[in-house]
Amino acid sequence: MKSSIAPFHQRESADVLIVPVWEGVSLGKTPGLERAARALAATGDFKGKLGETYFLYPEDAVEPRWLLVGLGKEEKVTAESLRRSYAAAAREVQGKQGKTANVLPARTKKLSHEEAFKASAEGLLLTNYAFTRLKADSVKENPSVLLEKIVFLDAKASDEALLSKLETIASGVHFVRDLVNSNADDKTAPVLAKMAKEFEREHPRIQTTILDKKKLEQEKMGLLLAVNRGSSHEPCLIISSYKGDPESKEHVVLVGKGMSYDTGGLNLKVGDGMLTMKCDMSGAATVLGTVKTAAALDLKVNVTAVAPIAENCIDAHSYKPGDVYHSHSGKTVEITNTDAEGRLILADAMSYAVEHLHPSCMIDVASLTGAIVIALGEEIAGLFAADDVLSKELMSASSAVGELLWAMPVHDDYRESMKSEIADLINSGSRDGSSIKAALFLQEFVKDVPWAHIDFAGTCYLSKPKHYYTTKASGFGVRLLIEFLEQKAGRTS
Ligand SMILES: [Zn+2]
Question: Is 269 a catalytic residue?
Fold first, then answer.
């Protein structure tokens, strides 16, 4: 897909022209739409409500169809409402199998030019995605649902660079969606390790280190090794570092849960609960996608993705409920439920990161608990942060990009319930407050590093499409973390 900018009067032919319309504002002000404006005013067929769409077929335009897209009331506009309107437009164009679009970005005094342009473009770019790899070859080679060329009209010269940046970020989101949507068998630890190693060829400032099973044994990462025991693939720890600011000591470490598949282990999940479990490596995909994107944008930050990759399977070698395993940190863990495996592999990864990578802050991202889905649904992820500064920074990034976080308590008193009689900790307590207890478990392995935990079990994989998120893998988190890194880069430079 290629997007560019052009003046309105120099636009070339395209399958559609996208025309934004404010609710309650007469179309008569838009050149060429006077007749349609009168007809629509008379019939009331299109009012410009948020996300409303209407096709017109003008006689003398370079596009055979114009798509009116409602932006809602101008006084209520936000970046998010614009993203949603343009997402609705993208879906309509996909429905007509449109390949090329001329687009008028939204204009409003309520937002800066950059904000409005950015949100308009994001809505289109993020929606312009289809996962066709597992379809028949004819469809795979010709995914007719996608736009191949988007030209933004009447933009500013500076929008060109912004557009290129937005395309890079959208590619990062699509990279994560592709990974998460892939078959579990196609993203095992060895496959993901090889892929992350390839990052080095994409950017000279990325370095990827892989700890294979032998190294994990030397490092005494007993929890990661235990979780993977039932799998026919060897586990690994992927460490992908991008040094965009070599002079600075600041180092953001992002840790992502990478269960390439989670059956629940001997505490086997029931059928429906397993159906989505190829998404259980979304955290790993997100942190790797973020580092890849940060490098592609040449951000002035140092950021490392740490991704423990394992597969939780049933086998004679599977790790067992009731047994106690040694973590990398030295703490021992009694397994009370083999399906609470994500926190185990994260614990070893974070403990390793604290000891070897000198993080100035650490954020882990994980599809960790079903309880967070019950609490916050598919549109909001849980943020557990014991560090106020980090919490504020993430919240600020969240509101800028529209990927919602809700601050959950890291309630110390519940720590008692994660104690074991025969080991230092149990891995799974009672169901009440179980997302909080999972966070408290993780906190045992971060020492004094400023740390935040994002439980995005609800937002990483969707049961139905929502605005600019497509069904299944959403890619949620990449834009949030890139914005967080950009804000950080802005503060230090
Ligand atoms: Zn599990």
Answer: yes
